[in-house]
Design goal:
Layout (H helix, E strand, L loop, with lengths): L3 H16 L9 E6 L4 E4 L15 E4 L4 E3 L8 H10 L5 E4 L3 H9 L8 H6 L12 H5 L2 H14 L11 E3 L5 E5 L2 H24 L8 H11 L13
Antiparallel strand pairs: 1-2, 1-5, 2-3, 3-4, 5-7, 6-7
Helix pairs in contact: 1-7, 2-6, 3-7
Length: about 240
Amino acid sequence: MLLQSLREQVLEANLELVRRGLVLYTFGNASGVDRAQGLVVIKPSGVDYDKLRPEHMVVTDLHGKIVEGTLRPSSDLDTHTLLYREFPSIGGVVHTHSEYATGFAQAGLPIPALGTTHADYFYGPVPVSAPLSDEAIQGEYVHETGLAIVARFRAERDLDPLAVPACLVAGHAPFTWGKDVHDAAHNAVVLEAVARMAHHTLTLRASAEEVSQALLDRHYFRKHGSKATYGQNEPV
């Protein structure tokens, strides 16, 4: 069986989404990529999470061609593979319909960086894509979803997909990613938390302003980059 370890990691990431309350029934999916082999491991479509096993994961190439597996891959496969092709620094992708992040996506609104919790993980607002055209929806919809995410990041030259590891798809729901599939799932959990906080903040005060650049820099760079100070140098 190909990529046993990555299959286990992808399964665990999918189960983490369930444990954290980010998915209902068979909603959502997680995938990981082996860059050396150019292969993707992704959850199968519509299989109950309680029944999922490593051998159920589907292996495809970076263009979605099935290499190993007897089940149909996630219906969002084309979005995942496009993100891997366009964002070569990422190693895992997650898609959920988590409640608060999806609320912002349905409203067509970015999630503003209103506090330090947000700044610890996302270096600025979490962007929202442009709405898909009728032609895109009626055509290669899943592929077009990926194109909309990439276009949103390309629109701002300094928007690094690892510095802002998430995008809200307008009218749809969030996608997150990370250096590996565990990191992508972690970011999905944090995204939902900061979306909930932002919703509460804007409910209390609609005119609430984003944190200053100084505070954003202070909190983001204490956890990220060559001068990060958060955590331990060695595992404990």
